[in-house]
Specification:
This protein has 19 helices and 19 strands. A five-stranded mixed beta sheet has the order 5-4-3-6-10, covered by helices on one side. Strands 12-13-14-11-15 form a five-stranded parallel beta sheet. β16 and β17 form a beta hairpin. α5 crosses α15. The longest helix is centred in the C-terminal third of the chain and has 22 residues. The protein is elongated.
Length: 568
């Protein structure tokens, strides 16, 4: 069979010898390489190479439908610096009409295609088969540097920032969603004052996937269709949208925009269109599974009519960032000059090293036969640790953080993480607790407190038995959460009122009312005033304010009273 690149041969009369000579026809200025079928739209494209002005070879894919009228293709090639001869038409028509090239499949949807193939814009990880990346020429732009440099350059910054650990781990977590059986994504929204490092945290997350920098981040200046297409392009990965302040309109309109973001991105599919509309490949229906990351100054939660519904709260999760004087994202670093230094180091590192982490992580995950099972076990471990009582809402909320925790632990196992497992676990639990305090319903708050009380009710260190006339030793008096005492023939737990405030993050009055309704909290002398005073010898004051809980009722609900002294 004649090679695709064999050039036609012609005979020319050479007058000097009277003989025929074989001469090679001129090389076409544009040459077909492959035929690409886009498996998303069904469209066919021809990948061609061409000679460039000033030397060198360029490549581009052109819609095969332009072969009858290739003027648009000519403009595309001209913009890319092709050397276009005056008689350009026939060569270009021939290149686009070719049928004998290698036929390969391409896709504009990233992520998993089967269980052993992961697609990025510029490369295929795992088994390639007949699939090719849609834009291999972007490799130099999307991926740069070394994983060792990325890891070492961010190590100190991560040691000083729970938020960087969390966003970097979230950047790695997207590829785990589908193998773990998760069918819903999430958008994490960092909010707080300006100059707290929120944008740095989002840029760092972007560096996991591709080139990062403020000029490369998407903003909320997106049309709904553009948001869908970007989410599809980030399928099984991370979608970063920065600067919620760019939203226009009233507070109500901005909240509606957030709501749209939550359900559209985390929900996993764009607007459904008719068959007539989707005949246009650019308007096809799209589906995706992504982890989103956004930032802004406004909190998501309000009160009264502004309080969000649970369905939105588990799709768009607000994470408060400390004020500048409290360190911003560098919550673990006390020195302002050191915070500034860590920020500079992080920015320099991700400018020189980006895109490599996700490629190394996915390759390691593909090579790990037990990877999906490990990720699921890690997520389950996280949920058990943070949810003493697993309510449906609490489980669904915790799952969003659990996949990030799993990614952080696996990254450490695979040797690509700029953190230790212990540090990452503490950081992600801290971020989870901060987010949970923003949305925790009264029922969940009460259940969590009750579960803690059940675990610690038998602890002599936290709740020593102090009957009337007994005295607490001076040092334990400063550490206890309350006492156990017989009152009217029943054993009760008297929780110090100020300690209750430490255990319940918000809605104390509502939580107390609910616990009284359940028969756990003993009523006070007046309606909805539950505080009583007890004389407890050895306490700093003669009388202390306490809340009385029925221990027998707590044991009845919890099943048993532990005899050990558990961790808090």
């Amino acid at each position: 069979m004649r090679s695709l690149f064999a050039y036609p041969v012609s005979r020319q009369w050479l007058t000097s010898t009277g003989d025929f000579a074989m001469t090679r026809a001129p090389k076409p200025w544009v040459r077909p390489l492959q035929i690409h079928q886009n498996i998303d739209t069904g469209g066919y494209f021809v990948k061609v190479e061409f000679d460039k002005i000033g030397g060198g070879i360029g490549t581009v894919s052109i819609d095969r439908s332009q072969m009858d009228d290739p003027r648009g293709a000519k403009r595309t090639l001209a913009q890319l610096g092709a050397r276009i001869p005056p008689d350009w038409l026939e060569d270009l028509k021939s290149a686009l009409a070719v049928e004998s090239c290698q036929l390969v499949a391409t896709t504009s949807v990233s992520g998993w295609h089967g269980t052993h193939t992961f697609v990025l814009k510029d490369c295929i990880l795992g088994e390639r088969g007949n699939l090719r990346p849609i834009a291999p020429e972007l490799r130099a732009t999307l991926s740069r540097g070394k994983i060792v440099a990325w890891k070492n350059g961010l190590r100190s910054a991560c040691a000083g920032s729970s938020y960087l650990v969390f966003t970097l781990a979230a950047g790695l977590a997207g590829p785990l969603l589908r193998p773990m059986g998760y069918d819903e994504g999430v958008v994490f929204h960092l909010f707080g004052q300006s100059s707290t490092g929120k944008s740095l945290a989002t840029i760092a997350a972007q560096s996991v996937i591709e080139k990062a920098g403020r000029e490369h981040l998407r903003t909320f200046d997106l049309t709904p269709r553009a948001l869908e297409e970007d989410a599809a392009a980030c399928n099984d990965s991370m979608l970063v949208v920065d600067e919620a302040g760019r939203m226009e309109g009233s507070v109500a309109q901005r909240r509606q925009a957030f709501r749209t973001l939550a359900f559209k991105v985390a929900g996993g599919q764009g607007k459904k269109r008719s068959a007539k509309a989707t005949a246009d490949g650019d308007l096809r229906n799209v589906q995706y599974l992504v982890i989103g990351l956004s930032s802004g100054e406004e909190a998501l939660e309000g009160s009264g009519n502004l309080q969000r519904k649970e369905g939105e709260q588990v799709r768009l999760i607000g994470i408060p960032v400390p004020a500048p004087h409290d360190g911003g994202i560098f919550d673990l670093e006390a020195s302002p000059p050191d915070r500034a230094r860590l920020a500079r180091e992080a920015e320099e590192t991700i400018a020189a090293n980006h895109g490599v982490p996700i490629r190394r992580f996915v390759r390691a995950f593909l090579a790990d036969a037990d990877g999906p099972a490990k990720a699921k076990a890690l997520a389950d471990k996280f949920i058990r640790a943070v949810l003493p009582i697993q309510t449906p809402f609490g489980q669904r909320f915790a799952k969003k953080f659990a996949v990030t925790y799993a990614a952080a632990m696996l990254a450490a196992d695979y040797g690509i993480a700029p953190w230790t497992k212990k540090h990452a676990a503490k950081a992600i639990r801290k971020i989870y607790r901060a987010a949970w305090r923003e949305v925790r319903p009264v029922e969940c708050e009460a259940d969590e407190f009750l579960a803690w009380l059940n675990r610690n009710a038998g602890s002599d260190r936290r709740f020593p038995v102090i009957e009337p006339g007994d005295k607490i030793a001076p040092k334990p008096a400063t550490r206890i959460y309350g006492i156990r005492r017989t009152l009217q023939g029943r054993m009760v737990i008297a929780v110090l009122r100020e300690r209750f405030s430490d255990l319940v993050a918000r809605g104390e009055a509502d939580v107390l009312e609910l616990l009284e309704t359940r028969g756990i909290l003993l009523p006070g002398r007046e309606v909805r005033l539950y505080v009583r005073q007890l004389r407890i010898k050895g306490m700093p004051t003669a009388k202390v304010n306490v809340l009385l809980f029925d221990l027998e009722r707590i044991i009845e609900i919890g099943g048993s009273m532990p005899t050990t002294q558990p961790e808090s």
